[in-house]
Specification:
homodimer; alpha/beta; Barwin-like endoglucanases; Pyrimidine Nucleoside Phosphorylase, Chain A, domain 2; Aldehyde Oxidoreductase, domain 3; six-stranded mixed β-barrel; four-stranded antiparallel sheet; 18 helices; 40% helix; EC 2.4.2.4 (chains A, B); Pyrmidine_PPase_CS (chains A, B); Glycosyl_Trfase_fam3 (chains A, B)
Chain lengths: 508, 508
């Protein structure tokens, strides 16, 4: 705290006043346009400035204030910036021009077709992690890497750069197994089931998951409706020590923190390119200390990966980059023609997961089968069972209740097991005519779930009532829309009205 | 204005309170996180919402406020959004989810290599102009068009789209002549001189110019230190009617308004690709009603266009697209190896322009010669003089004072002629050793001028004291740095210290 005697020391800086504005984007510093510092330093609106407080600093974008919200010599910060600096009301900050962002030249080079070389990507990722990139600059980096796809060497360099800027976990024993799905297939929520099965068989699986990038739910979003996932490293270690596994959100532990920054912008743009995908997936696994990894790559005309050929190509890149880091990986190319299970959205998918783990009569079989395949693969890779015996072992672990018991124990260790919430607002979507369901558009059904509010609205989403191949009567229920608010329900309804063929029914 | 009796009508909307925050970026709406509308509609921070007031609307990004700056039922808008909606304190706005930005799918397609087709670019440009694109989305569009350069058909489509969303001027007589420099050459400020010469010869030249994109000054920035350039259409028409010409900022008249939105982000990214350049240049000229256009394309190792080959390619694209719109164009490929004139920065360039127009003894000859070439070209194209006689006519017009008289008259009609401002803070940069000046780096000398504050700080910039080929002694003055603030001077000095070879001197 400053005392009046110390105030003189603030003459070159300015004093913080909390306005409490949360931008969730670039850090923002609010200053009077006519304040002495802005005039002396030439800080115009949208300028990027370095803000120092104690031994911490951030780079922020200037927004000017023309009213008496702030007086001369006062400034405010957006909430995330305030927290990162550990600021208190009245603290004295100092402002300066940030160093020129030299690494942006490399991004421009990439845009015009020059490959990243040497430590280009290390420097870019470090600058990004230190908050030197504005959202607009991050968007240019992401777009450049999508339009000019990264080659093998660039993918390895980006993966290494992303590992290097974050924490790196070590575990007391090996093997440490992990699992990842490339995504794009709504409802394909196998991770909690796989973790429960392999941990019940004694394998170490300290699973950290992402939130959704462009989908209606990520594993972390789904697990969050069942238990606490926002665990720090000490908590993760406690849970893993006691249960051999966890199901935590990865973002809280600074594994590949650059990835979270990239994901925020990728999500806004709905872009997720192969090179960044490989680096995103593998940097998290390597940083998390995995030694054995199984990858699920669903492919289909409306999945993220469109064809078998593309799936093979992605598989080769993932296995190649993994090998460069000594990570043993296998990939399962799976059917990606329609959603998995019934629910699409965090809580609705959590219901499917519980249903499979509890071996309920009407548990979705496709979700169960996929989880068994992936868990079986890990059990074999890690040497728990002989080659070919993995699926049978996984099935037995589910059927005799050991998997659910392990799942409960993991959740209890993370803070308790809750039942998924349900929504107030529902609407049925019915078949316009009778016939056979011939196609389900994964992307557009996922869009409906997102318009309904998923993943931010945990209970929102879509509940599927038919599969490809089913025969339906006119007026039969195809799917239910679940929303937490009427605004979102109306918005999704408008989209559904414009897209009557999301589930295509053809007369026999 | 609302009265207390009308307040009930606001129950579905919220009331505006002015906070006076100027973001100069995306429109922002400030709302309490816990307000009824945010909860009912699921508006999280960073959500994009449609804001309606009367018959106007904008799309804004949500920033949440957690303090009592706003009460439940209150919201605020960033200043530009406030102005666009014509808002007053206490006005009642309504909020809704904006329509899905379908055109962003086309941008994603482009990122992955699909060309824009049909009306793709019309829809993108319309959405952009209506403010439906966030800065991050605009950055992705710009980056995609740079990484996947636009082909001929796309360039024509983008040009047409940019013309169509703006105003289009018509003039009482033809020919209507125009001039454009591709840029990248500091100090190449020929436009005011060319306009004065051709208008003095009776040609109609209603010149509208841009502000700087990535350079230390655009023609509008330079003219702004001499006269008022922010003219509306009626004012432009008055000036042109009385003087046959104007030197106005184009942004005020909604000629190709999309261009200004793109330029803001291009400037932040320091990107300016061929396809967008062609559409940007020609859309403004076509919308301004030009019939004859001369283009200056300087090329050199550190100019925007790096080689004669690239200059020829760009020339072919510009002339091809111009022809598609019936615009007669010629291009002059000019020497781009070193800055033109002495000043770099708005006021310093204005001094050079005045010096040439006033035929002062020490007026920069290179600037004069270039202006004569371009003006001569227009005089010939428009049929004022026979082929080959343009340069002589232009020279005579300068030398007998008619050009300066016309320039004065244009400035007086626009609001007066001021002398350029001078700075308080200067610093000399001297030769470390004697020898011959063999190279001047246009990009880095422009960077110095920008670090000194140009173009926002009008008087800031660089004053060149040597040209390539000059012999200098050790300690001789190479250039002066001019700054309005000590902060900017210090910042530029640090850059100059790290870059001692911006002007390369080699021992004879």
């Amino acid at each position: 705290m400053t005392t009046s005697g110390e105030e003189g020391a603030c003459h070159l800086g300015i004093r913080l006043k909390r306005l409490g504005i949360n931008s969730r984007s670039d850090h923002i510093i609010y200053m009077r346009e006519d304040c002495a510092v802005c005039r002396a330093e030439g800080f115009s609106a949208q300028a990027r400035v370095r803000v120092d407080l104690g031994d911490r600093f951030i780079i922020a974008t200037v927004h000017h204030v023309s009213t008496d919200l702030l007086s001369d010599g006062e400034a405010s910060l957006s909430e995330r910036a305030w927290a990162l600096l550990g600021a208190s009301e009245g603290d004295c900050i100092s402002l300066s021009h940030p160093a020129l962002l030299e690494s942006l030249r490399k991004v421009r080079g990439k845009i015009y077709g020059r490959a990243f070389e040497g430590d280009d990507l290390s420097i870019i990722v470090r600058d990004l992690t230190e908050g030197r990139y504005s959202d607009v600059e991050t968007a240019a980096f992401i777009t450049a890497c999508s339009a000019r796809d990264l080659d093998g060497a660039e993918r390895i360099a980006l993966t290494k750069a992303m590992v290097d800027v974050g924490d790196r976990l070590e575990w007391p024993r090996t093997p440490v197994v992990d699992k990842h799905c490339i995504g794009g297939l709504p409802g394909n929520r196998t991770t909690p089931i796989v973790v429960a099965i392999v941990a019940a068989n004694g394998l170490l699986m300290p699973k950290t998951s992402s939130r959704a990038i462009t989908s209606p739910a990520g594993t972390a979003d789904t697990m969050e409706v069942l238990t606490k996932v926002d665990l720090d490293l000490a908590a993760i270690r406690r849970v893993v020590e006691s249960e051999g596994a966890c199901l935590a959100w990865g973002g809280a532990v600074r594994l590949s923190p650059a990835d979270d920054l990239l994901i925020r912008i990728e999500r806004a743009l709905d872009i997720d390119s192969d090179g960044q995908l490989v680096a995103s997936v593998l940097s998290k696994k390597i940083a998390a200390g995995a030694t054995h990894l199984v990858l699920d790559i669903p492919y289909g005309p409306t999945a993220k990966v469109r064809s078998l050929e593309a799936a093979e190509k992605l598989k080769a890149s993932l296995l190649g980059v993994a090998a460069a880091f000594g990570l043993k990986a296998q990939a399962v190319l799976s059917d990606g023609t329609e959603p998995v299970g019934r629910g699409i959205g965090p809580a609705l998918e959590a219901r499917d997961v519980l249903s499979v783990l509890r071996c309920e009569q009407d548990a979705p079989e496709d979700l169960r089968d996929r989880a068994i395949t992936l868990a079986g693969c890990l059990l074999e890779m890690a040497g728990c069972v002989d080659a070919g015996a993995g699926a049978a072992c996984a099935t037995a672990t589910l059927d005799d209740g050991r998997a659910f018991k392990k799942f409960e124990a993991i959740c209890m260790a993370q803070g308790g097991l809750a039942e998924p919430p349900v929504v107030k607002h529902r609407r049925a979507v019915e078949a316009a005519k009778g016939g056979r369901v011939v196609r389900i558009d994964n992307r557009r059904i996922a869009q409906v779930a997102k318009l309904l509010g998923a993943p931010d609205a945990k209970a929102a989403g879509v509940l599927m009532r038919v599969c490809v191949g089913d025969s339906v009567e006119a007026g039969a229920l195809l799917y239910e829309m679940h929303a937490e608010t009427t605004g979102e329900l109306a918005y999704a309804l408008a989209y559904v009205d414009q897209n009557p063929d999301i589930i295509a029914v053809e007369v026999n």
